[in-house]
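Hi,

I'm pasting everything inline rather than attaching a file, because the server keeps stripping attachments. The sequence lines come first, and each chain or strand is labelled.
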Amino acid sequence: GAVVSQHPSRVICKSGTSVKIECRSLDFQATTMFWYRQFPKQSLMLMATSNEGSKATYEQGVEKDKFLINHASLTLSTLTVTSAHPEDSSFYICSARTTVNEKLFFGSGTQLSVL
Amino acid sequence: EDKVVQSPLSLVVHEGDTVTLNCSYEVTNFRSLLWYKQEKKAPTFLFMLTSSGIEKKSGRLSSILDKKELFSILNITATQTGDSAVYLCAVRTTGTASKLTFGTGTRLQVTL
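And the predicted assembly:
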């Protein structure tokens, strides 16, 4: 089946630093990738939709200047949490949609802890 | 605003029991409903439903969609401890702004 690779799986950083998370579709092309955030014991909350070669579409309440998304190729999207603060600590997960059957495949997630 | 509601929020059953998980939705421009199983990290895909009344089966799991009443159920028969997970329901909309809206999930625990 299709594989989505997400790195890093875990990151601990100091408050004020920026963190970049990568999401790659390994064996398929993904014109659309999605970024989610999940707090403990809660559901996935869509943050933004990333389309290759164009600007990301952010959900209401998500600061686009804080969560920078780049989708430079059909296999790679990145999420950069700029000037991270403790309240940004969360589990971030990406997903990629295949162009063939439009199924959605998820990365393994990144646990971000901001001290 | 699109909304997906799952019930129950959590459930504890004994191995061998049968469980039914519920998902109701209110969205504009419905396209499909998806069920995922989330254990530790990434959700894994279970079913995608687009048509009413057609049951999808995979082993001990089955699911059906009712587009008139706007809900879906996920059944698990003869549960095993390995079925313990959070089961997520998500609804996808049509159009250029197509996105996936997730429910809060049902946390299932299967005990011996």
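The longest strand of chain B covers residues 30-38.

If the labels don't parse on your end, tell me and I'll reformat.
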